[in-house]
Amino acid sequence: MELHELSAADIRNEVTSREVSAVDVAKAALARVAALDPKIKAFMHVNEALVLEVAKAVDEKIAAGNEAGKLAGVPVAVKDNMCTIGQPTTCSSKILQNFMPPYDAHVVERLRAEDAVIIGKTNLDEFAMGSSTENSGFFTTRNPWNLDRVPGGSSGGSAAAVAAGIVPLSIGSDTGGSIRQPAGFCSVYGMKPTYGRVSRYGLVAFASSLDQIGPFARNIVDTALLLEVLSKPDKRDSTCADLDVPPYCAEIEQAPEGLKIGIPKEYFGEGIEPDVEAAVCAAMEVYRDAGVELIDISLPHTEYAVATYYIVATAEASSNLARYDGVHYGHRSEQAGDIIEMYSASRAEGFGDEVKRRIMLGTFALSSGYYDAYYLRASKVRNLIKMDFDAAFEKVDCILCPTSPTEPFKIGDRTDDPLQMYLSDVLTIPTNLAGLPGISIPCGFTKGGLPVGMQILGKQFDETTILRAAKVFEDRTDHHKKRPEIM
Ligand code: GLN
Known about the structure:
By secondary structure, the protein is α/β, with parallel strands linked by helices. It is about 40% helix and about 15% strand. It has a domain at about 5-260 and about 440-455: Alpha-Beta Complex (Amidase signature (AS) enzymes). It has 16 helices and 11 strands. The structure holds glutamine (GLN). Glutamine binds near residues 130, 131, 175, 176 and 206.
């Protein structure tokens, strides 16, 4: 097996037992970047010298007899909306093109503390607003399974980098589906933990009541491993729960007993492509054969989720993005006579169309006289959506459904129709509104050979049941072992 085919857990074992050096693993990852990234365009920045320096330090630490971290020598890619000290963090926006953070995000600190080797920063839809990476201010990432298709978004670069075998692990952020949808489109694992499980300190905020950071991987053990590393209480994010980190890697070794999985009727049927539905229905059979009880459930307010999300998320975004004014942060226009002109010209030049659309929508929703009609009402509907899940979880341990209603679409197909693009996330958004954890795992392919992902959603802070349920499927199927030809 070649180095780029190894799992993160295997790399860690080989590096710590000194069968292979972290430097060799890093060189192999950099060689993959050089060979594949011109086609896929997953990366915003890669600093080869720095990568090799970090890898060398890991080798030296092990050679000196020190205990190696949980990700010793493992190459990891980081979405470019998480701060990395002294390295660009652009959010794929022209407004932050030259931004160098003075500190590391909590998750980046965690990766370094566990001796991971950060290979580079990955492309996203500008400020994580989008479902395809086509809203990146710089370039579009391509799906490793078919270069004419989108990899999903907004964490498209992180998903594609794992799918193409450049890195075994990456991290993304999920506000309305941005980890799970690209994971589904690229046939990898992608998990959004419970709101509050992973600190967002150093994540550039999009919609603060929804944003959550999580792992991408090529198998469930690696997913558990990275989640274990990322989840550590952190006082710098006041929403981060002060809970002991469950030993996920150990916990998934234990099969779930008497597992009950809910099948929500609103996530099937109309609007779901037949090949997608067929793959998820086949997965249900796998569970039935494994002795899992499948129970029909209803999440009746699902149809309001997208509308609710686009009020809440845009309102919060309009507030969060006020700081990019050419003074506090970001690009400053040269074309300005006075300060007001300077603010508006800087923002007009720096932000892309989708970001401007969201700022306008959100500012309107929060404006005097409209707050009750929009934001307050959306907050109430959000509560109803949460209560749907609470009622369902009285009967079941987790919920199974497709990740995306469609296969990965063609690049350019939805760029002229924002509403169509927003509907890409109908099946992922409710989870964010309810603050619940969810994973997307590979569950098959369409007749045309494109990936289909399915979600397993769980109770608050019960990532363990999700991981265990995913493992039941992984142990009985081979979808996750299939690789795109490019790999
Ligand atoms: N696609 C959704 C949006 O455009 C979700 C994005 C995300 O999760 N960051 O807002």
